[in-house]
Amino acid sequence: MTQALSADVLVIGGGSTGVGVAWEATRRGLSVILAERSNLAGGTSGRFHGLLHSGGRYVVSDPRSASECAAENKALRSIAPQAIEDTGGLFVSLEGDDPAYAEGFPLACERAGVEAVAMSPAEARSAEPAVNPGIQAAFWVPDASVDVWRLLGILSAQAAEGGAKILEHHEVVSFEQEGQRVLGARLKDSATGETRWVSAQVVVNATGAWSGRVAAMAGCEVEILASRGVMVAFADRLSHLAINRCIRPSDGDIVVPIRTVSVIGTTDVAVADPDDTTVAPEEVAAMVAAADQLIPGAGSARTLRAWAGVRPLYRPPGGAGSGATRTVSRAHALVDHATQDGVEAFVTITGGKLTTLRLMAEEAVDLVVAKIGLPATPAFVEALEEKPARPAYFRLPDALAHRESVWGGDRDAVVCECEGVLRSDVVALVAAARGRIGIGDLRRSLRVGMGPCQGGFCSYRCAGLIAEAAQAAEAVTEDLVEFWKERFKGTATVSFGAQARQEILDRWLYASPLAPPGEPVALP
Hints:
Blueprint: E1 5-12, H1 16-27, E2 32-35, E3 51-52, H2 63-79, E4 84-85, E5 89-93, H3 99-112, E6 117-119, H4 121-127, E7 137-141, E8 144-146, H5 148-161, E9 165-167, E10 170-178, E11 181-189, E12 195-205, H6 211-217, E13 223-234, E14 242-245, E15 254-258, E16 261-265, E17 269-270, H7 281-294, E18 303-315, E19 332-336, H8 337-340, E20 346-351, H9 357-372, H10 380-385, H11 396-408, E21 414-416, E22 421-422, H12 423-433, H13 439-446, H14 458-470, H15 473-491, H16 498-511
Parallel strand pairs: 1-2, 1-12, 2-9, 5-14, 12-20
Antiparallel strand pairs: 3-8, 4-8, 5-7, 6-7, 10-11, 11-12, 13-16, 13-17, 13-18, 14-15, 15-16, 19-20, 21-22
Helix pairs in contact: 1-5, 1-9, 2-3, 12-14, 14-15
């Protein structure tokens, strides 16, 4: 048992919701500890298509969620503009789509508070030349793309500056209760195997698709309908705008440009296990075909990787429905288990979208401070007033210009050619982590391994730099093997065409003299 810790609030879960709660609670002056079983955004938050929702997708099927997204889209732009690319978006109706849906779309947007501007097909094609020329109707909306790792990095850093303690790779193994009151939790450090006791005045369950499992550990009930969605990334930026199909939410109805790639999403399949992120080849084929309908030629573009995330869809006690996940609201839910289950000092915040993390955090912390007995002191409005009128969004041309300067200079070695990552960037992060860092952490922070080669070259260089600093070659070798298992998992179903040639090269390198010592040639 390691040293015991205590805080006003213990947040379980390091996805967008949990990090948002920790950030908001810290800004209210509360002491905070956040525990995440893997790394920040290691669950659903790191497994989505990267869209900052305008709300347009839900104006007909889920107006409440649409309204929340419309307001929170603006909020996140003010909080962390450097993690957001202001792409804009199009909703387009194609031949064969229900014209009545497009006809009612502007009024539905108006009622939900979603900004939408009608465009003629010619205007839409001028704004986005890549879009299907057969569009029947089009609407511009304020969609954007968001780098989730940068976003959560910003929020967690601000929380840490305010005194929050962020414990990655710490999984809750049990809750301690006195009567019907939760006193805290025991956490297991996956790196050392040690457990530590954390006491808190209130525990917030922000574990998304795993909320039901965590709540059950405290003797509470949260019903989550887990919905798996498959996405496919293309190695090229196929469009400038996010392109949405102007129909009811369905499979493969959006393409999101994010940095130098594009992502098509997504499916919606109910699963029993929130850890079920399998991807079937037929799902990949369906996504690629859907992308080709929105952007002709996408079907022959180079596919980069495929992955799946599991949505946490909340159903309240006694909620009706068969469990068809497409019909379940994407709005969030705040559960006070004192009211629902008779268990004090335990709260669940679940459902919602990454776009609504700020709103979810505010509502959760309002309840926390009420339970602790402090006055509610929301600081969000004041914080917004301090922001510049024109936030500095992430701009792809700026990032590419930096990459060109890296390639053209002789001041530093390039570790990752695909993303223009310098040796000094890697060394600085490794040094700051004091040995507790892996290649996956470098991927999330610097984007190494996210380009066309998917880590085929840079992963070995990064492993060498980590080993050099940590002087623990065996542990680094194990980390490299785990990194490649994850990379192969994401590329196995998209290994055709140009990407198949890249995959053959990557696997040859893995099985060559560069392979980890003692690792068999057989690959995952």
